[in-house]
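Q: I have two molecules that I believe assemble together. Could you output structure tokens for the complex as a whole instead of separate predictions?
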Amino acid sequence: MLILVIISYSLLAFFEFRFLYKQKRWNDFWTNTVLSIFSLTVAILLCLNVKIPSPAKPIQNLITSIFGK
Amino acid sequence: MIKEQITDKEAICLLIVFIMGTTLILGSGGEAKNDAWISLIVSIFMFMPMLLIFSRISSLYQGKDLFDILIVIFGKVVGRIISIIYIWYAFHLGALVLRNFGEFINTLAIPETPMFVPLLCMGFVSIIAVRLGIEVIGRTTTYFLPIIFFILAVVLILSLSDIHFSYLKPILGKGLTPVLKGGFSIFSFPFAETVLFIGVFSALKTKKSPIKVYLWGMCISACVIILVTIRNISILGNMLGSFYFPSYQAVGQISIGDFIQRIEVSVSMVFVFGVLIKSSICLLVACKGIGKIFNLYDYRSIVIQTGLLMVYFSYFIYDNIMEMKFWAFKVYPYYAFPMQVILPGIIWVLAEIKVRKDAKSS
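A: Yes, here they are, computed for all two components at once.
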């Protein structure tokens, strides 16, 4: 599963980034790089069955503490 | 780059599907029980002023979307901070919509497949739709909407034999409070989410149309939702609150002459299409916002990564379906209130002042 994720991300990077690099759109290129590093990290964590903290619980606690249930 | 344009008709269709989308899956007005249809009418009246504000904002600045307007009004720094709030809202809403769909598929259609598979498939379709642009989404919606209305009408006619209007009966039996609470929940769940359309209506072809589009879209979709809610109540009666997906269960009751049975699959096609359009619009607005913040040449280059992030986010946002239902009806209205009511109000007041000032000075 992990290998599949890495292969698909590298394919994606190859096809997407080469185009942006050739066109010299640096803003697009760097934003895309940061976003894809972020999403690759999340994908690998999901593959390894790590429990990622969800923002739903804190928001729920905040709102129930203000307005009651 | 050619500017993308959609006609009024396409915009109205988009708005209708956007509002109907997840409301048909999850049902509406859970607090009000058998008065849910009254709370729908109440929520329309609650939404009316917000509708005027939204359409006024998008007609004050022609051809500019939400994030342009924010930067024009608040300046570069504050405008970008508020843009980040709206990007987060669009992103989160898209993830919630995808999650609703995933839970629906996972509970009823294919329980043994991991939920990630339907989420990823739907995410891919949304990514492709957004990469193709708003024009394609608009045209697809215009072609599919008659089919959706046809399915809904046929199902309504077939279910006539199971309808018991006596289930509606103690009208306002528990007083006005639950009706108002349900009205507030409906106000924020399907209706006021259309604040995201300020980010889309920069593509409108004609000048004066936002208010027309908003009014027609809201009227038609509200009629459809009211009809569907009345059908659900009068088929299921007291059991309405005990189902996660009331529309699906209500249609499942239909059985005519022992051979027209189990037609709920036809309704789930409506659900799938609604979810597709809704998540595409959310993804589109989020990508446009990110593009505006970082001064990108084109928002299309980041669609794939943002869409994948949205799919992952929707996968780990809730632990189970009970949490999702609680969140959607109890927490979400208060969570979304600042983005839906307070910020648009501030933007509207400042926009009016700014437009007057600019007209005076020039």
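A: One point stands out. The interface with chain B takes residues 12, 16, 20, 25, 27-28, 31-32, 35-36, 38-39, 42-43, 46, 51-52, 54-56, 59-60, 63-64, 66-67, 69 of chain A (CB under 8 Å).
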